């Protein structure tokens, strides 16, 4: 029974992490497993993505997720600020400006659930070892790896 148990506990280092459902176990220059460092890129949005991107020099998987985090969450952050400022400025216009400004401000509130869903999905995809490309941003992120 001892050898059977030992065989069951061993993992195949050549097995794909998505096949086994297990996270990646490759080390990075940060001293973290590849999947953990990739997920950490998304932990605090574009800030953690930037930190991981600047500190990780070797691992392309981690650098991809880090720069994708910067582009996705930095873009959402900038869009949120732009929409808030536009809503504020348009609110000063008589009659129509109030309606348009309110619509823009409410539209900026939709960014919060969108960002939350993106955050959860991207964090999960990175942790499971998938090199998931966000449309438009993913191919751009590949250039900076």
Strand content: under 5%
Order of helices and strands: HHHHHHHH
What percent of residues adopt helix (DSSP H or I)?
A: 55-70%
Counted up, domains total 1
- Rg (CA only): 21 Å
| Silhouette | elongated
The largest sheet, given as strand count, sense and whether it forms a barrel, is: none
Distance, first to last CA: 47 Å
Total strand count, please?
Answer: 0
What is the helix tally?
8
Let me know the average pLDDT.
83
What are the low-pLDDT stretches, counting only 5+ consecutive residues below 50?
A: 1-20
Structural class: mainly alpha
Condensed summary:
The protein has 145 residues and is mostly helical. It has helices at 2-9, 17-20, 34-43, 46-55, 60-90, 96-109, 111-127, 137-143.
Keywords:
145 residues; disordered N terminus; 0% strand; mainly alpha; elongated; 70% helix
Characterization of this structure:
By secondary structure, the protein is an all-alpha fold. The protein has one domain (25-143). 70% of the residues lie in helices and 0% in strands. The chain is built from 8 helices and no strands. Mean pLDDT is 83; it is low at 1-20.
List the helices and strands and how they pair.
Layout: H1 2-9, H2 17-20, H3 34-43, H4 46-55, H5 60-90, H6 96-109, H7 111-127, H8 137-143
Helix pairs in contact: 3-4, 3-5, 3-7, 4-5, 5-6, 5-7, 5-8
